[in-house]
């Protein structure tokens, strides 16, 4: 029969087993550390390589998409302008087909096109005939007597702006009339740039676009003018065209409306600018802005550098337009996909290390959360000052210390004046600025051993240890002086005051509730303007 091992033998075997296990762990630990370092090095290298390759592919794809979008946007602008030219040419065709086009026929053709729905950005379509200076009065009288559309005629019609000129090109047909009344009767020869555009379309027979200008309708845009000639007249030479010139058809366009709806799907990802670079015959000149998709909120300079831009020139009715498409500067390595690849590789590489340090990180996070929660529970979220809970705790501790050491305390209760008016007129953000400024000034007026707390709203409490005399009065005066100093909020200069009441230990109470109550009563007495003789039996002051 085998003997049962004694207790000593069992303990010896256990120690031997533990020794073997410890030796195995000691031998394996360096290997694991070396393996972890090898995995870390290889994993980081592979992660960085994959990150870089993915970033390159992402950047190449983004550049291709940007180029395609730029080309598509340019085509859209070009097609829209061709439609605008066709629109003006269509109205010009009325005068080529008919020897005389009446006001009613002009309006009927305009209404049949349903332009407000089908062609956003068209402000007006107009016809302006050539009126020699000698015929001006007769022409105006004829228009005033025209009752073809309005039974009252146009009794106020006059060619404007006033002035003697050798001939006039006044707007006669003006559709729609509503909203375009300022253009009715306007002479296109009165202003040099408009006259030059008229003369060029007259001499060439081609549609001519104006530079960017402020329209008579009060908007920024441009005008396309196309000369109208006498039917069956020879138009081979400039002299023949001048002799046959009858007037012009004009299309008035607001650039923002013309292009915004067309480019709507591209406006979020890119900034689109259309610039006029001058007369096509003279080559590109200084840029004049026609359209900017982000004109109202231009982007601040980026730390990543200048945005990427692509430009494409267009010839539009004798003008050179440049369509510029830009996108914000980016770092392809920080794009979502490359970052995801990098983070995934690094995360897999660090998994062993993360497991080992997980408990420590968890403990740190727990302590940090606990400290933050403790701070939030005892401090005001807006000003960072102690709240009522922490004030009561410190006041209780201060009372106990004062009783033991037979010292005195002062409790100052502060209520801001004119704060509600600022909050109501300028909003809560302005009120928050005032409260934070007051809190900052209160901190600066006190010693590190003193306590300043916010009870809520516009009420603050200061707890002072006052070893002798009326030291608290000097602190109170300094606080009131600091609070009444003006504050700046935007363009506003704010000024608040404060009503202050005080309670002293042990004169006005030996417990927290009594001191707070007395200080509160004293503050309200100060707010009512009571003198020291009529106020509650506590020192009080008022400012503001």
UniProtKB/TrEMBL annotation:
Question: Where is coiled-coil annotated?
Answer: none
- Which positions make up the signal peptide? none
For this protein, the record's PANTHER family field holds: DIGUANYLATE CYCLASE DGCT-RELATED (PTHR46663), GGDEF DOMAIN-CONTAINING PROTEIN (PTHR46663:SF2)
- Give the protein name, as stated in the record: GGDEF domain-containing protein
Name the InterPro entries on file.
CHASE_dom, CHASE_sf, DGC-Regulatory_Protein, GGDEF_dom, Nucleotide_cyclase, Rev_trsase/Diguanyl_cyclase
Q: Can you give the residue ranges of the CHASE domain? A: 97-265
Pfam family membership, one: GGDEF
Q: Which GO terms describe its cellular component?
A: membrane
Gene Ontology molecular functions: catalytic activity
Q: Which keywords does this chain's UniProt record carry?
A: Membrane, Transmembrane, Transmembrane helix
Keyword Hydrolase belongs to the record: no
Occurrences of domain GGDEF (ranges): 407-538
NCBIfam families, sorted: GGDEF (TIGR00254)
What GO biological process, any one, is recorded here? signal transduction
Q: Which PROSITE patterns match?
A: CHASE, GGDEF
Segments spanning the bilayer are 334-356
| Record lineage | Bacteria, Pseudomonadati, Pseudomonadota, Alphaproteobacteria, Acetobacterales
Its main subcellular localisation, reduced to a broad class, is membrane
Compartment(s) where it occurs, according to its Swiss-Prot or TrEMBL record: Membrane
């Amino acid at each position: 029969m085998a003997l049962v091992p004694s207790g000593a033998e069992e303990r010896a075997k256990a120690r031997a087993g533990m020794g073997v296990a410890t030796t195995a762990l000691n031998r394996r630990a360096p290997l694991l550390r070396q393996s972890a370092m090898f995995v870390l090095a290889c994993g980081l290298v592979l992660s960085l390589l994959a990150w870089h390759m993915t970033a390159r592919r992402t950047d190449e794809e983004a550049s291709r998409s940007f180029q395609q979008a730029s080309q598509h946007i340019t085509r859209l602008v070009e097609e829209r302008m061709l439609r605008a030219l066709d629109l003006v040419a269509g109205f010009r065709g009325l005068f080529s087909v008919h020897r005389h086009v009446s006001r009613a026929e002009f309006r009927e053709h305009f209404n049949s096109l349903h332009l407000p729905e089908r062609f956003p950005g068209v402000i007006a379509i107009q016809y302006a005939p050539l009126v020699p200076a000698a015929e001006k009065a007769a022409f105006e009288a004829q228009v005033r007597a025209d009752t073809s559309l309005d039974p009252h005629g146009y009794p106020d019609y006059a060619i404007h702006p006033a002035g003697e000129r050798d001939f006039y090109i006044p707007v006669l047909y003006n559709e729609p009339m509503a909203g375009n009344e300022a253009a009715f009767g306007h002479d296109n020869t009165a202003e040099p740039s408009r006259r030059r555009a008229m003369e060029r379309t007259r001499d060439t027979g081609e549609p001519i676009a104006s530079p960017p200008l402020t329209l008579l309708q009060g908007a920024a845009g441009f005008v396309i003018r196309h000369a109208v000639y006498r039917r069956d007249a020879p138009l081979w030479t400039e002299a023949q065209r001048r002799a046959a010139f009858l007037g012009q058809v004009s299309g008035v366009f607001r650039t923002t409306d013309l292009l915004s709806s067309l480019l709507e799907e591209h406006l979020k990802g890119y900034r689109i600018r259309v610039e006029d670079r001058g007369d096509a015959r003279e080559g590109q000149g200084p840029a004049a802005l026609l359209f900017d998709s982000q004109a109202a909120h231009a982007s601040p300079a980026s730390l990543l550098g200048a945005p990427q831009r692509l430009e494409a020139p267009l010839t539009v009715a004798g003008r050179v337009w440049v369509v510029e498409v830009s996108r914000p500067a980016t770092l392809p390595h920080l794009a979502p996909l490359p970052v995801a690849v990098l983070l995934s590789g690094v995360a897999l590489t660090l998994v062993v290390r993360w497991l080992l340090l997980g408990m420590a990180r968890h403990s740190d996070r727990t302590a940090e959360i606990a400290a933050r929660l403790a701070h939030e529970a005892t401090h005001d979220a807006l000003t960072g000052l102690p709240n009522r809970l922490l004030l009561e705790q410190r006041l209780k501790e201060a009372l106990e210390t004062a009783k033991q050491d037979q010292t005195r305390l002062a409790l100052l209760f502060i209520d801001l004046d004119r704060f509600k008016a600022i909050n109501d007129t300028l909003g809560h953000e302005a009120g928050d600025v005032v409260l934070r400024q007051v809190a900052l000034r209160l901190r600066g007026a006190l010693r590190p051993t003193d306590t300043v707390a916010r009870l809520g709203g516009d009420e603050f409490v200061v707890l002072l240890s006052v070893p002798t005399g009326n030291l608290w009065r000097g602190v109170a005066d300094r606080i009131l002086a600091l609070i009444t100093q003006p504050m700046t909020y935007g363009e506003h200069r704010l000024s608040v005051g404060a009503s202050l009441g005080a309670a002293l230990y042990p004169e006005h109470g030996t417990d927290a509730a009594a001191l707070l109550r007395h200080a509160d009563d004293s503050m309200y007495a100060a707010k009512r303007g009571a003198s020291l003789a009529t106020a509650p039996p506590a020192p009080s002051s008022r400012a503001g």
